Structures are given as structure tokens and as C-alpha cells.
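Team,

Forwarding the record for the chain on the shared tracking sheet. I've put the sequence and predicted structure together so nobody has to dig through attachments.
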Amino acid sequence: MAELWLPLGVAILWIGTLAGLVRSFHMLQQNSYRAGRYMRWAKTAPKGRPAACLLAAAVWAGAWFVWRPLLPFLAACFAAVRIARQVSEQKKAIKPLVFTARVKRLWVTACLLAAADGALCFVLAQPGRLWAALAGVLCFAFAPLVALAALFINAPGEKLVARWYIGDAKRRLKRSPGLVVLGVTGSYGKTGVKFMITRLLQEKYTVTCTPESFNTPMGVVRTIREKWKPGTQIFVVEMGAKQVGDIAEICRIVHPDHGVITAIGPQHLDTFKSMDNIIATKFELADAVAARQGVMFLNCDSAPVADHAPVPKAVRYGTDPALDVYAADLRYEPDGACFTVCAGNVRLPVRTRLLGQHNVVNVTAAVAVALHFGVDPADIQFAVSRLQPAEHRLQPKRFDRGATLIDDAYNANPAGSIEAVNVLGRFENKRKIIVTPGLVELGEQEQQHNFNLGVRAGQVCDDIYLVGTNRSKPIADGVRSTGFNEERLHIAASFREVMDALRPTLDDTCVVLLENDLPDNYLY
């Protein structure tokens, strides 16, 4: 019976390990279940955590030699600390773990691994078999590796599940005769343009679009299977990418008839590696549309798009009068802009409540598409006047104590972030405040772009709140280079700390820009 202390302790440890997998599966989910990106997150663990895990293993090994009945007690203590920590982290998470079917399958696999490890320890736990004792505690200490093992074990089955879902989505599309598919891609602006196009086309057609930021192959598939509108005539599909071939993969599912490229810039350079790869990937949409002899709408205010604009049947748009469709007579107002969209002989005055110059170009794109599909100009004017900001994209909101919040939490590109600060600067006679953790996934250019953001913030803002004691260093350097008052530069470890410090200082004279609310896997 004496040797049962180890299996009992290991069983308790595995309860803690399974609880610890909440965090690991959470990060797997936020990293799109990609092992490479997940391992990059795992390497950013706080410096003291590996040492703490090894100390726990040493204490466990000591109990094995000194007094083995102590093992279940130690296991219960370790598990209780782990569970309490997981509960706390999920409460503070910006976007907590979503218990999808895939996460549940991963958990079943992890449970089977736990059972196998427990059985192995029970069978092999003989005197002197220290490695058997260490097996359970090391699995507990390094739960991220258990999650990774479950990911690899499940990979073949997940491919089969995904293949079935994709096939089902394709069959559903084929049952929609006369359906027109419009793809929208770009490094940034694609979600806003997607919603603008959808709103304008709804003046004449029944339109389904991918919701929120559903822009992955499985996000598109889920839209088709769960959110399809009966009688849909036009399907507007947002197409995102983090590596070469991602857009082509979505195109093979939906076969777009027409497409829009909103803008191209340095985004996800950690996976794309170069601007040439980003450009080639975005123009995978143009290749798919050309195969169906469709029309591409190209934002030629974006230099990388303009340089590759000579594609079959292209409509070029932007602010240059030499383009096919362009915005003219632009006047900015505190709550939006007025301008005229010019397309051949058509001159269409419009007014929008959307903020920022980039939204002038985005509205121009939507108007160009609506005109192509024959929507009445008067209906277009009405729809543009009713456009609302996409969720978390330069979205004005009421904030605490009468302050105004400009919610730009989903903006994660260099040009868009600078434009957001410029929008903040247009609020005259207001206390201008920015809250930001900076930009990510920009490869070797990341520090420079964050420095540039800090410089512009230092030139415009009255108070600056940076999130992430390590991550925010390049932004803080940029801020300081402008001679900004150090007493009004605040740095905190989390958004919660920032908000706790900021809220008591607010009143109706304040405008707060929330710029890029990073997922939990980036905050450190």
C-alpha cells in the first residue's frame, strides 16, 4: 500500500495539469492552433516561471526520498495554486477561452494522456524509480507541452473534420444559383470596407457577409453553414492571411467573381517575412477573380497596390483625379467628412459620420462597387449617410464620467495607428489621451513602427498610457524623443491597471483613444 502514495499524488497532479491546460488551450486558440506561433508565445513566459516549476519538481523529488505520504498533500497544494491562477487569468483575459468543439476534443486527448501517465506511474512506481515520480510533476509543470502533444495527436482527425466542413460549405454554395461572390482583402481596412459594401448593396440586393472578423477558411465555412440568409444574391467575403497561400485557400472554397484589395502594408511580417510575400498573397484574390473574368477594385492610394494594379478588368479608386473612381472636394468635420465621389460622368456628393482619411477612401471603394452593381445613386447617398463605424475601428463611444472614447481596439497596422492619432488631434480644446500596447507581428520593423507611433503620440497627446512593461519600451522611447512631459507618460503591466489609474482623472473635457487592444498572448 505504501507505493500507492505516488499514483494518488500523480492523479491529483493531473487534475491540476488539466486545469493548467485552460491557459494553454486559450493560447493555442488565440494563435489559430498553429504550433509555431504557440511555441513563440510559450517562449515569452515570465523569467521566474521555469525556475518555479523546477523548484516544485525538486520539492516533489525530495518528498519521494524523505516521506512519500507527503506526495498527495504536495500534489493537492500544487493543483490548488494552479486552479486559482487559471480562474484569475480567465477573469482578466481580454478574450477568454471559447469552449469550441475543437477545444473539447483537445481536452479529451489530454485526459487520455493523463490516464496513460497515471497508469504508467502506478505500474512502474517501485522503490528507486525516481523517474516515475518525476513524470507526473514534470507534466504538471510543463502543461504547455502537454497541450502541444494533444494538438499533434489530434491533427490528422482535425484535418478530416475541416475537410468535411469545407465540402459541406461548397455544396451549400452550389445550391445558390446565380450567386455572386465578392472577396475583400488587404493588410488593413478590409473589415470596414466589407461592412460598407454590404450596407450599400443591401439597398438593392439580399446580401450575406462574413460577420465580425471572420476571415479565415474555417470562419468563412462557419458563415456559410450557420449564418446564411435565404435567397442571398451576393456573398461578401472578408479574406485574411498570415502566410503565403492563405487567400488562395479561401478562394478555392468560395470561387470569388469579383474582388477588392483595400491596402497593402507591413502586417504579419513575422510570418510573411517580406513585403513581396504580402503583396503576392493579397493578389492571390486577383488571380482567382481573373480566372472567372471578374472585376477587381484596387485602392491606388496604397503604393504597393498601385504598383501591381495592371490586372484584367480593374477599377482603380482613391483620391487621385487620374483614377477611375476618386474622392474630391473633401472637407473634414469633427464628426465625419463631406466629399464627392467621381466616377466617369457621375458626381455623387456624400456625407459620412466615419472618422479618418482612410475611411474616405474606404467609402469611395464601397461606392465604386455599388455603382458597378447598379445601385441607384440616391440610395447610395442615403446608405453612406447611415454608415456606422465597424466595431472597435475608430468607433466613438460614451465613456466614464462624460468622457469620449474612440475605440480603435482592432487597429493593428502602422498607417492606421498614425491616422487614429491624427483623428484624436482634431478634437480641439479637449484633453487628448491615448491608451495603447503598440503594434505586433511586424518582424524586424516592429520596434521602428512602435517608435514612430510614440513620436506621433508625443506630438499630439496630453496624456499617454502604455500597456506592457517590456512591450511598450520602443513607444516610450519615441514619446520621450519629443520632449514629452515624463509625469504624463504612464506605463502599466495590464489594461486593468491602466484603466484603474485613468478613470478617476476623466471628465467631459477628455477624449480617450484606445489603440490596438492586443490579445492576451501578446501582453507581457
